[in-house]
Amino acid sequence: MAKIDKVEIKERVNQVAMDMILKFGLRGLNMVELADGCGLAKATLYKIIGTKEDLVREISIEIFNVNIIKTLYPFKPENDPIEASREFLNNYFNYAIQGQKILLLQIFKEYPLIEKSVNEYFDVEMQKVISCYKIWQERKLVREDVNVEYCIEVLHVLNDHYIISDYSDEEIIKRLQSAFRCTFIGMGIPL
């Protein structure tokens, strides 16, 4: 098997596994069905992925990348804070809720070490966002008397609280939109 074939097969396995998790949850990730869905023998599948936990770790990071990194893209110092915050809100509520539910309610409970790995990525990305807001503060585009780190931390805590709540997705989005908008407006970013 050529190296490129292995890469393509690995990507296919990851995509099919992610689709299974997003559709059926973590418990819906059945290795026999995954192997069948990819046209592989179960033994071949394990040679490609290592362990199920290794596969779930990769999927978790991919969910994080697709759902979180994409939403944080507008946070660059050269961007306008109002437009960046608006774009973030639009992207965030379109992409991130379902992926976070799977991460927080299923994967992290089953695999605590994966939570640690994903949180390390998250912390790096949050520092970029905080740095961006601090630059905007220095340029007087964001209120100077507000501690942006506290604001971002509050949003993170509220986010996790609502994601793991029993509210419907629509209600979670409504509550988070309100919390995020209030925080941004309090930071001096008129939305």
From TrEMBL:
Assigned keywords, A-Z: DNA-binding
PROSITE patterns from the UniProt entry: HTH_TETR_2
Coiled-coil regions listed in the entry: none
Record-level Gene Ontology MF annotations: DNA binding
Record has DNA-binding as a keyword: yes
InterPro entries in the record: Homeodomain-like_sf (IPR009057), HTH_TetR (IPR001647)
Transmembrane segments: none
Protein name: TetR/AcrR family transcriptional regulator
Organism of derivation: Ancylomarina longa
The organism's taxonomic lineage, starting at the top: Bacteria, Pseudomonadati, Bacteroidota, Bacteroidia, Marinilabiliales
